[in-house]
């Protein structure tokens, strides 16, 4: 009996070390708001920080404790994400995976937003107040923020521009003041595809994804891992874009849109992270090099080959629920076995 109790105690103690990653919400900006809300969070390895970008035009840019308002050379940077005052839902979202318990220092590089206290931190300990004080004390200048913007334009991750609602269903590219807007239809009744699924775009062009039935996303990925979010596989701090899930009913005739701006000619890879949609071929590319090995056809084949199985953190809530259910059954069976000893 004593042995059984000791074994059961050891098993339960082991269970206490099991943990699951959490998604932590942070709101960036808003009408008349120059702040990250909350201003800092505490997170563990595996957690995901979800930044919801609101009005007006902000960034999520990595800095350092010593220089709050200057981007670190190898740090992440969303680029500017303008959101109109008329937008009330379907805000752009970017995600950051927490890879260590070290502090992460962040600021908005728009004009003098940082100098007005628009900074953020992950795991700052007792240093956040000092970090914010250094920012508002003039640790950087507006001109230095502009210089960082020029560097950010070389990133291979396009920045999200706007999210809006429109009744247009045209797939014809249209001219804008800065370039061409390419319209891509996402999904539709019985359709698991982006149409067109492969385009060429120039620097300054925009790509507007128009969401049709049922419930899809457009999420940045990479050629090597088509069905995983870029933010979870990158090694150089890229956050990537993610529209989030956008449900559209069969009766809807006005369709929400999500727009990204092309900052360079580096290929853009994207997928739908709903259930097994990516494994079914729901992927997209812009500026894929068609005469090279990393062309759209190869990207599509790789997505189907992986069949979405490499995306446990990007699939639907049903997968998460089944994981917990499986764990519950496993624990119950193990406890039952121990009690029979």
From TrEMBL:
Transmembrane segments: none annotated. InterPro entries: Cupredoxin (IPR008972), Ser-rich/MCO-related (IPR052953). CDD domains: Cupredoxin (cd00920). Residues 1-21 form the signal peptide. Keywords: Signal. It comes from the Eukaryota. This is Phytocyanin domain-containing protein. It comes from Psilocybe cyanescens.
